[in-house]
TrEMBL record:
Regions annotated as coiled coil: none
Superkingdom of the organism of origin: Bacteria
Transmembrane segments: none
One Pfam family here: Glrx-like
InterPro entries: Glutaredoxin-like (IPR008554), Glutaredoxin-like_YDR286C (IPR052565), Thioredoxin-like_sf (IPR036249)
Protein name: Glutaredoxin
Amino acid sequence: MSGTEPAHRITMLGKSGCHLCDDALRVIERVAADLGVGYDVRDITESNREERDEYWEQIPVTFVDGQPHDFWRVSEKRLRAALERP
């Protein structure tokens, strides 16, 4: 890497009280810490109607660099692979 590429970013769309979201967040926190990647957690109940309609039944939804990556469960192996690509 030349140092000019933008850093990757993980976003998780979930909600409070969702056990799958809690599980996904643990994976995201571990991978983000290991790779030095930032992450956000967004509450789907505070999203716009289009986002709620599209993703409500799939939470937690994980995005890498704004693109949908995983839903329901987060594969640590897949997440690491996506973040290790330039």
